């Protein structure tokens, strides 16, 4: 073993006459450990919040949304979805619609977003069934609008009346169902939409009965408190769109990190008639705010680690003062200044590494306990999430530990240089 390492470890183990230095070393290890642990927990919490928000948002919306520039329904969505499914990076493309309406039930009325579901898409149905807490999607499969009557036909009005008499089969968000009193499968309410009329010009309200086929809970309050799912043909008919049309096309990609490049390929494929928006663009303000919060928290906790690392400087200064005679003897025996510096740098690095490793273990333990007991709970109506999971990542843990170690190493420079500048002749004269 090199004598520099031997002496550094011996100084750390020696107890005689070093009570103050030992206390400061223990304080440095504790401070660094808590700083690294807090940074690991904070970054894991930020990752968990971001991942949970992303997953829940994408559970109800598309990775990439395609719509016409003029805002009109997409009537030729079938050939378009076929072409999109053949695009590299795309796993599925389905038509859908988003339309605002009013849902009325026994306990009151509330704003709702009517979402059309393509009942031929196995992926869409599987994602929807995964969120169901009551009821079934089967009634939606059987709910189809009556065919359009020919223009001028005498039975056109009667067909519209028959369609209005048949209730709309729908899946209602759990929070919306509780607010309106439609909390059980089989309950009936009313959907109130606006229909464009020519005489007098404007929008006239139109009410249609709604039959609750099931209740879903996605975990995102914004969806659970306002969304209603219905079969796509019926949803488009309620919105007054032509039969067989869709408002938008939802595109699902294989790799979320490659959404930007896939969106560029979709734009090149469809041309200027369509607007293509990926999930990052649609939610840019939210995720930008989360990224800023993550950086701010990491910066503040890093300052705490720097303050804790200053205890290493204090510890080594005390060691240098106590070991002046030893340092002088080493110099007299031929030890060079870099070797003397390395002794104290190794001692400080050992303290920093011990604190960083302890902090990583402490942080991981805190994350495991936080996940197990769901310690971080939030009001769902404010943050859209009921509980935040901890998602520690290897890169964040390694970065936290390395940063703490480097700060500890920098804290050793001043006392190590002071030790290297000790003049043996002057010290030994007075010892």
Total strands: the figure is: 10
**What is the radius of gyration computed over CA atoms, rounded to a whole number of angstroms?**
33 Å
H/E element string? HHEHEEHEHHEHEEHEHEHEHHHHHHHH
| Main sheet overview | 6 strands, mixed, barrel
Average pLDDT score: 87
User: How many separate domains?
Assistant: 2
Helix content: 55-70%
Give a topology summary.
Layout: H1 3-13, H2 19-60, E1 64-68, H3 77-85, E2 90-105, E3 108-117, H4 122-129, E4 132-135, H5 138-142, H6 156-165, E5 168-173, H7 174-180, E6 188-197, E7 202-216, H8 221-224, E8 227-231, H9 232-238, E9 248-253, H10 259-270, E10 274-278, H11 279-282, H12 284-322, H13 324-332, H14 337-373, H15 380-383, H16 394-411, H17 413-420, H18 424-430
Parallel strand pairs: 3-8, 5-7
Antiparallel strand pairs: 1-9, 1-10, 2-3, 2-6, 2-9, 4-7, 5-8, 6-7
Helix pairs in contact: 1-14, 2-12, 2-14, 2-16, 12-14, 12-16, 12-17, 13-18, 14-16, 14-17
Descriptive notes:
This protein has 431 residues and is of the alpha+beta class. It has 2 domains: 199 residues, no CATH class; 202 residues, no CATH class. The chain is built from 18 helices and 10 strands. A 6-stranded mixed beta barrel has the order 2-3-8-5-7-6, surrounded by 4 helices. Helix 1 crosses helix 14, helix 2 packs antiparallel against helix 12 and helix 12 packs parallel to helix 17. The longest helix is centred in the N-terminal third of the chain and has 42 residues. It is elongated, with a radius of gyration of 33 Å. 39% of the residues are buried.
């Amino acid at each position: 073993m090199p004598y520099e390492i031997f002496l550094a470890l011996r100084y750390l183990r020696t107890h005689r006459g070093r009570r103050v230095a030992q206390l400061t070393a223990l304080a440095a290890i504790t401070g660094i450990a808590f700083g690294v642990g807090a940074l690991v927990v904070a970054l894991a919490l930020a990752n968990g919040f971001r991942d949970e928000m992303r997953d829940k948002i994408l559970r109800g919306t598309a990775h990439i949304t395609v719509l016409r520039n003029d805002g009109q329904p997409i009537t030729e969505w079938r050939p378009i979805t076929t072409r999109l499914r053949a695009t590299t990076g795309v796993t599925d493309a389905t038509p859908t619609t988003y339309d605002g309406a009013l849902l009325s039930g026994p306990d009151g009325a509330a704003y709702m977003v009517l979402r059309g579901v393509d009942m031929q898409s196995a992926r869409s149905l599987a994602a929807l069934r995964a969120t169901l807490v009551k009821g079934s999607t089967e009634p939606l499969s059987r709910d189809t609008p009556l065919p359009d009557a020919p223009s001028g036909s005498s039975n056109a009005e009667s067909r519209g009346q028959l369609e209005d008499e048949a209730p709309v089969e729908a899946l209602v968000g759990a929070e919306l169902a509780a607010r309106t009193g439609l909390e059980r499968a089989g309950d009936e309410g009313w959907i109130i939409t606006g229909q464009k009329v020519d005489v007098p010009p404007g929008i006239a309200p139109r009410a249609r009965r709604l039959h609750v086929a099931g209740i879903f809970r996605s975990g995102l309050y914004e969806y659970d408190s306002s969304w209603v799912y219905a079969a796509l043909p019926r949803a488009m008919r309620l919105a007054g769109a032509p039969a067989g049309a869709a408002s938008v096309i939802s595109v699902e990609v294989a790799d979320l990190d490659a959404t930007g490049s896939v969106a560029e390929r979709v734009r090149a494929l469809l041309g200027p008639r369509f607007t293509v928006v990926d999930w990052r663009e649609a939610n840019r303000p939210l995720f930008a705010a989360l990224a800023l919060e993550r950086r701010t928290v990491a910066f503040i906790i890093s300052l705490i680690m720097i303050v804790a690392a200053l205890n290493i400087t204090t510890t080594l200064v005390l060691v240098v003062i106590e070991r002046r005679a030893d340092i002088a003897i080493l110099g007299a025996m031929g030890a060079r200044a870099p070797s003397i510096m390395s002794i104290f740098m190794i001692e400080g690095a050992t303290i920093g590494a011990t604190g960083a490793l302890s902090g990583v273990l402490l942080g991981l333990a805190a994350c495991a306990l936080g996940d197990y007991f769901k310690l971080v709970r939030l009001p769902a109506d404010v943050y859209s999430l009921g509980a935040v999971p901890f998602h520690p990542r290897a890169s964040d843990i390694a970065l936290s530990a390395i940063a703490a170690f480097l700060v500890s190493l920098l804290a050793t420079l001043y006392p190590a240089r002071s030790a290297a500048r000790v003049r043996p002749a002057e010290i030994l004269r007075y010892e």
